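Researcher: Sequence recovery benchmark, item below. Answer with residues only.
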């Protein structure tokens, strides 16, 4: 293999790997074949690989016949030819924005998987990420919505057909329940249900109670709350926002409370009805918080 290190280069012929930062100060000419296939930022990066010393440099953009170029390719080539002064990168970025468009955060032109996961879930994930950034925290990409708390009271929790006959109306109410951010929101929705459909049957009461517990469980990093007639079990997410010392002190001070694994807390206590389950769960989560 010949040693080229001591020779002067005048012509630079390369692949796009050159845009990663390879520096050859002696190169003063670059040939970019099929320049219409490159993006504006790529062309700007490639062009910047030559002219890195005091010698004048030349960048030749080679294309097929002009008639075969697309309208966007022509705009890119015109922009890269016009912007050749020092500091032209910003203006190139503005031209690129005009050519490609600014995109959409919520519309169908948004890149990503919004159409795969649905607008509502995407909006929730976006809101959670913005809230994390405003609070000075890095968004958790592994769990973008934080702890998703599953509440199991081992009793039917639903709006029955004989209470709310319209299936579409039931779906709307379920959606509104899922969007409730505070206990007051749930109370207002419960009052609205009583006003519209009458006194809440037991399954509807369980449904509203489950959502109240979910609001208490999420800030503690509780992913599952399981309440049976024999006791209560809390399962936490990895690295929950709860002081481990507080949990240990609570286990030592409360009868029937014990650790049931690295991420579970179990309370052994008779819970014969819904009120007893709600009271035990609320008291335990209040002490944890």
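Model:
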């Amino acid at each position: 293999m010949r040693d080229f290190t001591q020779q002067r280069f005048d012509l630079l012929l390369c692949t796009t790997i050159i845009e990663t930062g390879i520096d050859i100060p002696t190169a003063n000419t670059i040939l970019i074949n099929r320049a219409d296939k490159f993006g504006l930022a790529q062309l700007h990066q490639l062009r910047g690989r030559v002219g890195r010393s005091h010698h004048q440099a030349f960048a030749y953009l080679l294309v097929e016949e002009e008639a075969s170029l697309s309208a966007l390719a022509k705009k890119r080539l015109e922009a890269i030819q016009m912007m050749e002064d020092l500091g032209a990168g910003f203006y190139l970025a503005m031209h690129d924005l005009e050519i490609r468009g600014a995109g959409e955060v919520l519309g169908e032109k948004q890149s990503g998987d919004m159409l795969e996961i649905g607008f509502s879930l995407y909006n929730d994930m976006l809101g959670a990420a913005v809230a994390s950034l405003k609070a000075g925290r890095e968004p958790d990409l592994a769990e973008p919505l934080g702890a998703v708390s599953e509440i199991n009271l081992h009793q039917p929790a639903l709006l029955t057909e004989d209470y709310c006959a319209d299936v579409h109306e039931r779906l709307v109410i379920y959606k509104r329940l899922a969007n409730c951010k505070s206990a007051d929101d749930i109370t207002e929705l419960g009052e609205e249900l009583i006003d519209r459909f009458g006194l809440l049957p037991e399954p509807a009461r369980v449904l509203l109670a489950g959502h109240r517990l979910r609001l208490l469980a999420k800030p503690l990093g509780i992913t599952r709350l399981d309440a049976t007639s024999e006791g209560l079990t809390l399962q936490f997410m990895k690295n929950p926002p709860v002081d481990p010392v507080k949990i240990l002190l609570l286990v030592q001070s409360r009868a029937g409370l014990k650790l049931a694994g690295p991420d579970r807390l179990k309370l052994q206590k008779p819970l014969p009805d819904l009120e007893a389950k709600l009271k035990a769960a609320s008291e335990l989560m209040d002490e944890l918080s």
